[in-house]
Write a structure and sequence with these properties.
Shape: globular
Distance between the termini: 44 Å
Strand content: under 5%
Order of helices and strands: HHHHHHHHH
Mean pLDDT: 81
CATH architecture of the largest domain: Orthogonal Bundle
Structural class: mainly alpha
Length: 175
């Protein structure tokens, strides 16, 4: 079954569909949440709270074609809300991308199964020299394999700004 079908069943109150959505999305949401907070307990709590909120508010939700952008954006906003409540937010002139730390393993990369350690370390070093927003966008584009339009939704940016962000980040890495 495709995502939109599971979502439609979930909106009708189907617990099995809800469970399938949770199981299909949990690992990706967890990895994404950990990139934002680096706090396992907070990430797990936010995912649980997000799904609890979804279930309680299912009658007010609209159909979606691709649930990943919807859930990623919802999780991002939920984490921001929780951090603000805990007063762990950064000063106003910063945003959550400042917390977005790059800690990729060879598995995360999937650039090549035969990446040597030296090349791997060099790429990690280059990624960490980018701005937090560039790292965030590049992570979503190349590691979560999301479309530019989806990334724009998640990061609350327009599509052209995301293209520019990724392009500038890749250019800096090339240089």
């Amino acid at each position: 079954m495709n995502q939109s079908h599971w979502w439609s069943l979930f909106l009708q109150g189907d617990k099995h569909a809800f469970s399938e959505i949770f199981l299909a999305c949990h690992d990706n949401l967890y990895r994404y949440g950990m990139k934002l907070t680096r706090d396992q307990e907070l990430t797990n709590d936010c995912i649980q709270n997000l799904f609890l909120k979804l279930w309680k508010n299912r009658n007010n939700l609209k159909p979606v074609v691709d649930i990943y952008p919807y859930l990623f954006k919802s999780l991002r906003h939920h984490i921001i809300d929780i951090l603000e409540l805990k007063r762990q937010t950064l000063p106003i002139d910063h945003d959550i991308e400042e917390l977005f730390i790059v800690e990729y393993t060879a598995e995360d990369f999937m650039i090549s199964k035969q990446v040597e350690k030296e090349t791997h370390d060099k790429i990690i070093g280059l990624l960490n020299q980018l701005t937090p927003r560039q790292r965030h966008a590049i992570y979503l584009r190349y590691f979560e394999e999301m479309e530019i339009e989806t990334i724009a939704q998640i990061m609350d940016m327009n599509v052209q700004s995301v293209r520019n962000l990724i392009s500038r980040g890749l250019q800096l890495m090339r240089n």
